[in-house]
Design goal:
Structural class: alpha/beta
Strand content: 5-15%
Strand order of the largest sheet: 1-9-8-5-4-2-3
Distance between the termini: 9 Å
Helix content: 25-40%
Order of helices and strands: HHEHEHEHEHEEEEEHHHEEHHHHEH
Oligomer: single chain
Bound molecules: pyridoxal-5'-phosphate
Radius of gyration: 21 Å
Number of helices: 14
């Protein structure tokens, strides 16, 4: 499978996950910079209000990342040292690290190999007297089986913190991802469906939790401390908790406000690309994502192929090399959490104990599906895969 003449030239390298950035957000960032108010302020408040409206949620707090959103949600959920929090091995390290930063003990429950989402039967197996919460990840934008998760949470008095980093547009049985559990955590990182460069948001079902997260996100300073330099004159603040520096800046929100206005057209564009991949790659020797369940809405954040010697005749990593030689960027989401030395050394986890996540993690590769892709870009991705696999 040596690539003789690349599908694209080097100067047209297709960057994986490059976002669609348009003139409106560029102008808004410039206006924000000229306004003198770069930090958390009116633009952040507007972005929170817009996001709340889009999701039909009661309480939203913008932060500087989804990692911060997860960390503070887990703290607000009251997780303490010794408390166990169940999550999936098929996620980005931030999910597990946030549990650790909050002082909890992460416990992994293997995935369903078809949906790649946490398997409710595995969660049940992992529940102990110390379990306090579940952090499901709506992987690639596909909703977890939330009916089963809500039932388990109800039976065992557990909180649910949804990791919606891939799932801004995702819906499950008429409910919007991030509003189904107690907390929903979103990412606006550069590769995500709505971007602010770095950025995150928490949706909280309960107003007190949202207020606490707002305070914890800005050093633990009393509510509205961010207004202290506003045109109402200087306001004294009090430090009421030992918080963190996790606030979103107006410069980030300036991007997000305009990105969010295009969330639906961007979703439709990614769905179009997804449908084309499903049709064009149907006869190629690679595994394709499962069809979304009825009465759900997939976020179409990642399009993952499954590749392996047996199925495809070559390894996943040689496929990555061939795509790169064709000047097309790809990603891996994810090597399962127990593959990483830190978790092995700290918890003694072994990939083989989570066989489905291990298998997916060792054979998966994500191909570009950003709304920025032109039809020519999509043609090139398909042509590259077909020539590699033929
Ligand atoms: C599943 C998942 N959770 C959490 C995060 C962390 O998001 P952020 O980079 O905004 O902190 C990511 C980011 O890639 C993610 O994919």
């Amino acid at each position: 499978m040596r690539v003789k003449s690349p599908i694209r030239s080097k100067d047209r390298f297709l960057i994986f996950g490059a976002p669609a950035i348009e003139d409106e957000e560029i102008a808004e960032v410039v206006a924000t910079m000229k306004s003198g108010w770069l930090g958390s302020g009116p633009k952040v408040a507007q972005f929170e209000a817009d996001f709340k409206r889009y999701k039909g949620a009661d309480h939203a707090v913008a932060l500087h990342s989804c990692t911060a959103a997860l960390h503070l949600s887990i703290l607000a959920a009251g997780i303490k040292a010794g408390d166990e929090v169940i999550t999936t091995p098929m996620t980005f390290c931030a999910t597990v690290n946030a549990i650790l930063h909050a002082g909890g003990t992460p416990v992994l429950a293997d995935i369903d190999p078809l949906t790649m989402n946490i398997d409710p039967a595995e969660i049940k197996r992992k529940i102990t007297a110390r379990t306090r919460a579940i952090v499901p990840v709506h992987f690639a934008g596909r909703s977890c089986d939330m009916d089963s998760l809500l039932k388990i949470a109800g039976e065992h008095d557990l909180q649910i913190i949804e990791d919606c980093a891939h799932a801004i547009e995702t819906e499950y049985h008429g409910m919007k991802a991030g509003t189904i559990g107690d907390f929903g955590c979103f990412s606006f990182y550069v590769t995500k469906n709505v971007v602010t460069g770095e950025g995150g948001m928490v949706l909280a079902r309960n107003g007190e939790n949202a207020s606490r997260i707002k305070v914890l996100g800005l050093h633990g300073m009393s509510k509205d401390a961010w207004k202290r330099f506003g045109d109402d004159g200087y306001k004294h603040y009090q430090v009421i908790e030992c918080g963190f520096k996790y606030n979103m800046m107006d410069m980030q929100a300036a991007i997000g406000i305009h990105q969010l206005r295009r969330v639906e057209p961007y979703w439709h564009r990614r769905k179009q690309i997804w449908d084309r991949y499903m049709t064009e790659l149907a006869k190629v020797a690679v595994g394709l994502p499962a069809v979304p369940d009825v009465d759900t809405r997939h976020g179409y954040h990642l399009f993952t192929l499954q590749i392996g010697k047996q199925r495809s005749g070559f390894t996943r990593d040689s496929f990555i090399d061939a795509m790169t030689a064709n000047n097309i960027g790809v990603g891996v989401h994810y090597l399962s959490i127990p593959e990483h030395p830190y978790y092995q050394a700290t918890f003694g986890w072994r990939p083989e104990e989570y066989p489905h996540a291990m298998q997916v993690g060792r054979s998966t590769v994500s191909i570009p599906i950003s709304a920025k892709l032109s039809d020519q870009d999509v043609d090139d991705v398909i042509a590259s895969i077909k020539t590699i696999c033929e």
